[in-house]
Each structure stands twice: as structure tokens, then as C-alpha cells.
Amino acid sequence: MTPSAPPSRSATTDGRADALVGTPGEDLTRDGVERLDAGQATLLQGSASGLTTSGSFALNQDTPGILDSTESGDRFGSSVSLVDLSGSGHAGLVLGADGEDAGDGIVLYTPVHSTGFGLARTVALRRASLGTPAGAHLGQTLTP
């Protein structure tokens, strides 16, 4: 599976372009059990010389503040985007998991403010809240 990465925007408070990369085929282990294709997303931070792994971090459904928990086939990070939905000047994280809930899918939005990431304020858009049909694979594709 090829990682996906939308155009770079600043998700941190330094104003430098960052990149959010989704790896939906990533296998993760929780409680000694391997979760195949659970997926994750990694935020690479920008520096004066470009993107760097220094200060980067990975998110998955076991990250505190990110809703649900990792399960095989969730494909968290199936689509990712950095978008300023709040008008704060900081790009929030938009993350898809198109395999969540047996293929119904989910889209998560985590805001970013001047004080940093708002993982505790993550919003989930699901089949039930949007009225999409079963198996719609929400989060399979996002438009930046």
C-alpha cells in the first residue's frame, strides 16, 4: 500500500509547512495481538531546511484523544489532509479510516490551535451521524 500525503500546510504553531502521511496498511500490535491493516498517520514537521522526522509523531486509534481503538482492517490513515477548518491559521488534522465498522468508514477531525493539538476535541463523522449507506467506506478519499 502506498502512503498518501496531501499538500503541505502548517499544523504546528511555527508556521512552517508540515506533512501528514497516512499508512493504512500498517500492522499494529495491542495487548499482544497483531492488528493487520489497522493503519496509522504520521505528522512530519517542517523546519527551516524542509520536512524532518525530528518532532514528528504517529497517530492511530489507540492514541489518547483519537476515538475508538485499533482493529484489523480499520485502515486508519486511508486518506489524510491538513485543513484549517476553524480559520485560526493552523491546519487541523483530517483522517479517514475507510475500513472502520466493517467498511462503513469514519472521518476524524482534530483541531489545532495556537496552544497546540486538540486531540481531546477530536470529532468523528460516522455512518449513523451522516446517514450514509452501509459499506460506504467513509474516509476512503478526502479532498484537500
Automatic annotation (TrEMBL):
Under the heading InterPro entries, the entry gives: Integrin_alpha_N
Q: Which SUPFAM superfamilies match?
A: Integrin alpha N-terminal domain
Q: Where is this region: Disordered?
A: 1-30
- Could you tell me what this protein is called? Uncharacterized protein
Per the UniProt record, the source organism is Streptomyces lannensis
